[in-house]
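As agreed, record copied across for absentees:
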Amino acid sequence: MNSLGELVAMGGYGLYVWGSLGMCAAVVVAELMVIRFRRRLLAQEVEDERAPGETAA
């Protein structure tokens, strides 16, 4: 591979390879966002269930 164009084209399979890597990256980012959202929801539920007179430990 002598040039960037050859690296991107990958012998005609570039669209498949880069598309696959892009989809994997998108899934990882989406999963991280879902985990962050669920964590916030759980923290909010714990806060809501805490008695009004209690303080955070």
Remarks:
- The chain is about 75% helix and 0% strand.
- Helices lie at 4-9, 14-49.
- The mean pLDDT is 88.
- The radius of gyration is 22 Å.
